[in-house]
Amino acid sequence: MERSDRLLKELHEKEDVIAELKENSRKERDRIGVLYKKVGTLQEEVERLKELLRSTKKHLSIYERKAASAEKRGKGPDKKSTQSCKRAAEYTH
């Protein structure tokens, strides 16, 4: 009888450990799911910023060409293209 009580007690202890491990496993899965969502959100933000940078560089290039063209014609850069170049340069540095 004493042996069976000891074995029963050991069985309950092991069941408690298993239950705790399962609970911790669920918590870890939930935490990992949240982290994957955060990674996805950050990747979307990175792509958005890359697109914004590409667009800004494109517009800067356009305004720089306009300014260079105006200088070649002897007019000097017009005020609008000079301001736009400065503003675009601020975003890229």
What does this structure look like?
The chain is an all-alpha fold. It has one domain (2-92). It is 91% helix and 0% strand. The protein contains 2 helices and no strands. It has helices at 2-72, 79-92. It is rod-shaped and about 110 Å long. 2% of the residues are buried. Residues 64-93 are annotated as: Disordered.
How are the SSEs ordered, and which strands pair?
Blueprint: H1 2-72, H2 79-92
Helix pairs in contact: 1-2
Global geometry: rod-shaped
Instruction: Briefly note the structural class of the backbone.
Output: mainly alpha
Q: What is the domain total for the residues?
A: 1
- Contiguous low-pLDDT stretches (5 residues minimum) are none
Order of helices and strands: HH
| Mean pLDDT score | 88
Give the strand content: under 5%
Quickly count the helices: 2
Largest sheet: none
Number of strands: 0
Instruction: Give the N-terminus to C-terminus distance in angstroms.
Output: 81 Å
Based on CA atoms alone, the radius of gyration comes out at 33 Å
Helical content (DSSP H or I, runs of 4+): over 70%
Provide key terms for this protein:
single chain; 93 residues; mainly alpha
